[in-house]
Amino acid sequence: MVSHQIEVFSNNEKLLFFSIAPTGPPTEVFANATSSRSLSLSWSPPIQELRNGIIRNYFISVTSGANTITRNISSVQTMIYIAGLQPYTTYNCTIQAGTIQLGPSSSVFTVNTPQDGKNRRENNWHI
Predict the structure, then answer these.
(1) With a threshold of 0.90, does the pTM exceed it?
(2) Which domains does the chain have, with CATH numbers?
(3) Quick one: pLDDT at residue 127?
(4) Helix (H, G, I), strand (E, B) or coil at 76
């Protein structure tokens, strides 16, 4: 576990604050292939007791074979669309929350983009 010490001086008194990475992953993760070339991901922050500070960002990883797309987004956002994907391809996705450092990844979830010209709504995953 990595922690960082922040020193704040107030009225000649030294106050110490510690912040550590979240110890829990994002929750309520939902993934959906929105077209043959895109997917959407949505999630909720880690449970309060495992945040260990203010969630400042989320790191999203979408991988297929040797190709990986990553996004680092603000903590206000809990949904993202990823475009530029290949049709009829399997993608493995994870999400991590960060305070001063990233916490553990969500479970890996798989999204299959449909063939061009097909819209497959049954490809929804919820963890």
Answers:
(1) no
(2) 21-126 (2.60.40.10)
(3) 47
(4) coil
